[in-house]
Design a protein that fits this description.
There is one protein chain. The chain has about 230 residues and is mainly alpha-helical. The protein has a single domain, classed as Vanadium-containing Chloroperoxidase, domain 1, CATH 1.20.144. It has eight helices and no strands. α1 packs parallel to α5, α3 crosses α7 and α5 runs antiparallel to α6. It is globular.
């Protein structure tokens, strides 16, 4: 509890001094995401990118009992039963270790990513694909993918924190495979267009990089002593 309060005070002070830059980063990600969405004419009316339907059909052609079970599990790990618990544990562990700047970076990147995703979904109100009946249906809006955005945000946070350590290549390899599997699982299950996945990845990378540059300005890097 003490560590969490210390992290919260550090974050509050950071926001007091840098809220304009954080807001600018938020808008700076939302605007390109809006532009990406506008590439599909009349997105609200259900228009899709040229590559969406062929990739969905390709994924569906692989369908089978073994793959069904595998990708349902991967999809679950990509959000509620994997990414979210790791997000929480990561931020709390950094706070407990008194790594306030690292914890602030992870917390802002993760929470901001969630808010961006929720805002964009409501803005576009894109309906889910309906090429076939999914074995794991979803009822929320489709664009951008929350699974893709959340898994990529966590991956970017871990890679950036590990980049100047001996763990950077193992972390990069494992997170890259995980992110790719989560993204493909959503296409395989027929609950996202490939463009939803691409948009989620793009927004996550841009947002996380922006927060990293704010929290670790020139001359600073993770794990340095204050």
């Amino acid at each position: 509890m003490v560590a969490a309060r210390t992290e919260a005070r550090f974050g509050t002070e950071f926001m007091r001094r840098h809220w304009r830059r954080v807001l600018l980063a938020f808008v700076g990600v939302l605007l390109p995401l809006w532009g990406f969405g506008e590439l599909a004419e009349d997105l609200r009316a259900g228009e899709v990118f040229f590559f969406d339907a062929p990739l969905l059909q390709f994924a569906h052609a692989l369908a089978g009992d073994g793959w069904n079970a595998f990708f349902v599990r991967v999809s679950a790990l990509g959000y509620l039963y994997g990414v979210i618990p790791v997000d929480v544990v990561l931020v709390l562990a950094l706070a407990w270790r008194q790594k306030l700047r690292e914890g602030l970076f992870a917390g802002f990147a993760i929470i901001g990513s969630v808010l961006l995703n929720l805002g964009a979904k409501q803005l576009f109100a894109r309906q889910r694909p309906s090429l076939w009946e999914s074995i794991a249906p979803e009822s929320s809006f489709s664009f951008p993918s929350g699974h893709a955005m959340g898994s990529m945000t966590l991956a970017c946070v871990l890679v950036l924190l590990a980049w100047r350590t001996r763990w950077r290549w193992p972390v990069l390899a494992v997170t890259s495979i995980f992110v790719a599997l989560v993204g493909f699982s959503r296409i395989y299950l027929g609950v996202h267009y490939p463009s939803d996945i691409l948009a989620g990845w793009t927004a996550a990378i841009t947002w996380t990089a922006a927060i990293y540059l704010l929290v670790f300005p020139a001359g600073r890097r993770p794990w340095q002593q204050p």
